[in-house]
Design a protein that fits this description.
20% of the residues lie in helices and 38% in strands. With 145 residues, it is of the alpha/beta class.
Length: 145
Amino acid sequence: MKAYILMLIVPSLFVSFSLHAQQAEKTLVKAFNLKGSQTVFLDVDAEVEVKEWGQEQMRVIMTVALENGSEIMLKSLVKVGRYNLDSSEEEAQFKVFAPGLERQVKLRSGKELLEKIHFEVYAPSNVLVKSRNQETVAEKTVPSF
């Protein structure tokens, strides 16, 4: 009988620990027509990774992870436009920004929502991509032919 109870308790402990460690994550993609601009300023306060690709438009892949939020909360934030990217042309450069990220979100408990946001930018080879935290030139990639 003791062995039977032990067999029921031990697996349930692993399930509860694995459920607690999960975080909500979503990947969003948007393409931009650069209209001939050769300089792009990504005006976001997040980690930015730039890669070169052979297309004329620029593609931005944003990965959002909520450390203290649920999948339903993340879907709601996406639906109301928190992670929408917008663009403008200013001072001879193409600017990409996320106006919704300027506001801080608070949970019912009063704590701030903890978001980890990562941008992966695919830019044409002749485009210089800058961000708030760094200046990056699109990396050279070697075709695998």
